[in-house]
Design a protein that fits this description.
- The protein is α+β, with helices and mostly antiparallel strands and about 500 residues long.
- It folds into three domains: about 240 residues, BirA Bifunctional Protein, domain 2; about 90 residues, Anticodon-binding domain (Rossmann fold), CATH 3.40.50; about 80 residues, 2-Layer Sandwich (Translation Initiation Factor IF3), CATH 3.30.110.
- It has an eleven-stranded mixed sheet, with helices on both faces. Strands 18-17-19-20-21 form a five-stranded mixed sheet, sandwiched between helices.
- The radius of gyration is 26 Å and the shape is globular.
- The protein binds one RNA strand of 77 nucleotides through helix 1, strand 13, strand 16, helix 10 and helix 11.
Length: about 500
Amino acid sequence: MADKITPRSEDYAQWYVDVVRAARLAEYSPVRGSMIIPPNGYELWENMRDGLDGMFKATGHRNAYFPLLIPISFFAREADHVDGFAKECAVVTHHRLMVDADGELIVDPEAKLEEPLVVRPTSETIIWDTYSKWIQSWRDLPILINQWANVVRWEMRTRLFLRTSEFLWQEGHTAHATEEEAVEETRKMLDVYTTFAEEWMAMPVIRGLKTAAERFAGAVDTYCIEALMQDGKSLQAGTSHFLGQNFAKAFDCTFQNRNNELEYVWATSWGVSTRLIGALVMTHGDDKGIVLPPKLAPTQVVLVPILRKDGNEAVLEAARKIEQMLRDAGIRVFLDDREQYRPGWKFTEYEVQGVPIRLALGPRDIENGVVELVRRDSGEKQSVATEGLVETIRKTLDAVQQGLFDRAKAFREVHTNTADDYETFQRIIEEEGGFVLMHWDGTAETEARIKEETKATIRCLPFPGQFEGTEEPGVDPVSGQPSKGRVVFARAY
RNA sequence: CGGGGCGUGGCGCAGCUCGGUAGCGCGACUGCUUUGGGAGCAGUAGGUCGUCGGUUCAAAUCCGGCCGCCCCGACCA
């Protein structure tokens, strides 16, 4: 029978788990907090990866690979970095197994490593150790490198895609001769993420600067894109860090500048992860399942032939013709001609999986020279002419892509409020959720107090031009102290 | 780490109070009938009941230990 999906209104968290499972994006593995990503989920990730990778290459970056295992001593080099990651590291201490006297397979106590190895939670340390060898002169700079990899962070509480102990991501690590250039790179990559989120994922984001409390361990400044999920909680969808000279100093990475002076290298790092899949689910999904933006959907169009007792050959032949026509046009199409499932079953199945367009083709349609087209985002059903179908499909895919973005943006606008007093702020956070713009005095004390009392955190200090009135000075209603502008608060994932 | 829930065919669950030869739904397989929104009937296969120990003539069931997973909270992409 149907995989049951709990309605969002009943239990949003359960809905999320149900949808991920029903759409077969991920399943639990035998190890807590790690997940298996079957093809439905992985193909989605591949499309994200390919889209981003193209943008990285277009901005001059090259891919490389650094090792999974990092000597523990490397982590001791940068103080903030250690503090940030020490509590969630998996550590390799032995290199051999053996069978003991009881026949049990155990870790061989004789095979202890001289120096424990940390399974990378992020790669700054191994990379800056390497860069210190690669860089001598200003002529060696900049270094613009990205790596696609898995990382491990031993999380206390995990959720599929949103927070798992092992996840897939990309991490960019760049080295620059000047502070200005590094800051520019940090901002540029945040723009890349913004473009990707909005144009590929159809997910509107806010760009901004993190407060010290939310900053990456070891960074001078952390920038982020924040997206609003349907339950009113914010999700950090990507981060870009200006690392200053912190890692260069920790790993003694210097270069000779044009004036023959020795200087520390300026650094950035930036990343997005499989968490984006969770963001996609919670941005566009509905009670029937996920809804995929056409640009990322592994299958953009599914074609379901309506088969009967006889005359199937004619239907299948016409279906194959349509399939070929769409494929030749560069559209990712799948003809589901399996006989063990009936059309109704397939219709439901592809709705759960979020395929943007479903076509159905039966004997009646063939007679009329049409095909039935159903949009996943709206459920709208229409008969369209087989003649000119490629153009119709292209237009519809574009319309779905744009429609998803518009809908998500409208949702965000409705759920973005301004609060000028603390009572209103607390009421909105508690009752409505969403983003709340409020003045903040800039102190960690006030930030911590608000978090303590409301569970809402400062998602970012938004870049100018995104919201009206965030740039005017005012008064922090919590402390009564002056504020330089309104910042974005929300409860977050 | 605190709170809650759960470990029984592939999946979801009942059975446990009151011990007595392990059951239901879905799925799978075979056959027939079906096929424009998750088909019907008939038949078949599939389980050391998480694990270790105890009580008993007899344990899925009672007692104890251990292990694991999920959900909710405190840290984090």
